[in-house]
Amino acid sequence: MAALNDANAMKIPNRIPLIALFSFFLIIPFTWGGVPIFLEHLTVGLAMFALGFAMFAFGWMGGGDSKLLAGTAIWFTWPDMLMYAVFTSLFGGVLTLVLLVGRTYIPVRILTTPWAQMMLKDEKKIPYGLALAAGAIFTLPHSRIFAAALGH
């Protein structure tokens, strides 16, 4: 949902990170690993909330992206978070390169759809929610909470 909204409107509605956050609290009783693991999840989520807030304050990340970062990060422990950061950085780098090349080399006159114009004419915005969503999707199957859900 976050990726689609960000790709179509360059906005991530508040309900999407909130759904991710509340879903974690619904799932955690079924994947309970004890208080230390639960606290680690909370610490990761709060740390990524603080990091996202700082990046938003400096103008490096949009508000929706920073909230999505926190809403998805709570699902991960620190080792998972490292994997999430790597995947998100890789997807974000590819996304940024594609947009930069497109914005530089695709002539404006062939941008006939509103979506293409939005993606390629705006020189500053990058829908990083796509990278965050892809990073979360690729990290989740390797995460501690996923293993616990499978009974491992």
Alpha carbon gap, first and last residue? 29 Å
Q: Unreliable segments (pLDDT under 50, ≥5 consecutive)? A: none
Number of strand segments: 0
Beta-strand content estimate: under 5%
How many whole angstroms does the radius of gyration measure?
17 Å
Number of helical regions: 8
Helix content: over 70%
Shape: elongated
Listing every helix as H and every strand as E from the N terminus to the C terminus, the arrangement reads: HHHHHHHH
Structural class: mainly alpha
Q: What's the short version?
A:
With 152 residues, the chain is mainly α. It is built from eight helices and no strands.
Walk me through the structure.
With 152 residues, the chain is an all-alpha fold. The protein is 71% helix and 0% strand. The protein is built from 8 helices and no strands. It has helices spanning 2-9, 15-27, 35-57, 63-73, 78-105, 114-121, 129-139, 144-149. It is elongated.
Set out the fold topology.
Elements: H1 2-9, H2 15-27, H3 35-57, H4 63-73, H5 78-105, H6 114-121, H7 129-139, H8 144-149
Helix pairs in contact: 1-7, 2-4, 3-4, 4-7, 5-7
Which properties best describe this structure?
152 residues, mainly alpha, 8 helices, 71% helix
